[in-house]
Amino acid sequence: MSTRPSSRVTDVAVHRAQPRIYVALDSADEARLRRLLADLDPASCGVKIGKEAFTALGPRVVEWARARGFAVFLDLKFHDIPNTVAQACRAAASLDVTLVNVHASGGRRMLEAAREAIPPGGNATALIAVTVLTSMADADLLEVGVRDGADEQVSRLARLTAATGLDGVVCSAREATAMRSLFSGPQGLVVTPGVRPAGSSQDDQRRVVTPGEALANGATSLVIGRPITAAESPARALEAIVSSL
Ligand code: C5P
Question: What's the pTM?
Fold first, then answer.
């Protein structure tokens, strides 16, 4: 297995069949989700299904995506007692998804239980952690008892994530370089949202980088939502991004 980064969009050689781009399907509208799944090409991207779609419509959203051949990142960010998170991870992996995530702040025993439920290797589902939500600034952290600030908390939780054997982290592309040193193996995953093609609307994202910059910083997969899903032709918007890489 090669460890050399490839320019292919679906990078099977390097990252356990992780696509270079996951399109974030943030909608609870069945018809809209089905249109997006019909329009996008599973050879060019995977899809991220999060709490909005999953809570409204259930596991069948994953089934629709899998039936079309998409790799699925099930972004439910589990955070609970170890046994509950382990069972939730098992249930998620049984949906045949490529990527599942938990909150690193659930602690060592929770992370270990999640890892045990989704063992590493082969073509199994990969397991990554969120460190600090990018919506949390230093003042928000202080209010919940974290005095060290976001940067220190991100590196503390990333080290814990690596120490408990998870496959990687979700982080901003600006943190990707530092994260890559913790998850540097050929299976290490650094998944970054907050990506905007040059010249496109920032929406409510604040610190954005272009897809090319994110990959150059060490991101292994990019999560991109509205620049693709809100475009007149999502398929063409995706292809424009892919050809810019
Ligand atoms: O539409 P947009 O490209 O901003 O969508 C980005 C996706 O990534 C959304 O699903 C959002 O919830 C998610 N996300 C993010 N920032 C984070 C973590 C996740 O934007 N730090």
Answer: 0.91
